[in-house]
Amino acid sequence: QVQLVESGGGLVQSGSSLRLSCAASGRTFGSDSVGWFRQAPGKEREFVAAISANGIFIYYAGAVEGRFTIARDNARNTVNLQMNSPKPEDKAVYSCAGRRSWGTLRAVAEDVQWTYWGQGTQVTVSS
Predict the structure, then answer these.
(1) Chain center to CA of 82
(2) Considering only CA atoms, which of 82, 85, 92, 72 is closest in space to residue 23?
(3) How far apart are CA 92 and CA 41, in angstroms?
(4) Measured distance CA(80)–CA(70) in Å, rounded
(5) d(Cα 120, Cα 11) in Å, to the nearest integer?
(6) Rg of the chain over CA atoms, in angstroms?
(7) Using CA atoms, how far apart are residues 120 and 127, in angstroms rounded to an integer?
(8) CA dihedral 17, 19, 20, 23 (to 10 degrees)
(9) Which of 4, 78, 103, 118 has the smallest number of CB atoms closer than 10 Å to its CB?
């Protein structure tokens, strides 16, 4: 069983940068795809970014592409989400998730397709 813990959230100014980390414990998740999702107040959880186990496949939501970067450090059993130029609309609880396969992009973007989750970390962006 893998446990995921997110960190790095907080209050950040619009246009600055923030890095979120997703750390795994229990077993290595180097063989798993890892994704980031977010949920803003009153809204459904939405896909942000995902990376395959070998790091070859990466997929971003249109709203963050070009501003956010997902990367994995399998030696440290972590996956990071670098958030550059955050906007007030990026405010949300960010959660990471894992699954064994990569699959189709449609499946990657669906939260129900992910097997295990962290508790989330709050990100607030001030204008």
Answers:
(1) 9
(2) 72
(3) 7
(4) 6
(5) 15
(6) 13
(7) 23
(8) 180
(9) 103
Q: How far is CA 90 from CA 33, 43, 64, 74, 100, in A?
A: 23, 12, 9, 27, 28
- Please tell me the distance from the alpha carbon of residue 50 to that of residue 53, in angstroms, as a whole number: 10
Say what the pLDDT of residue 30 is: 87
pLDDT (tens place) for every residue of the chain, 127 residues total: 899 999 999 999 999 999 999 999 988 888 999 999 999 999 999 999 999 999 999 999 999 999 999 999 988 999 999 999 999 999 999 999 999 999 999 999 999 999 999 999 999 999 9
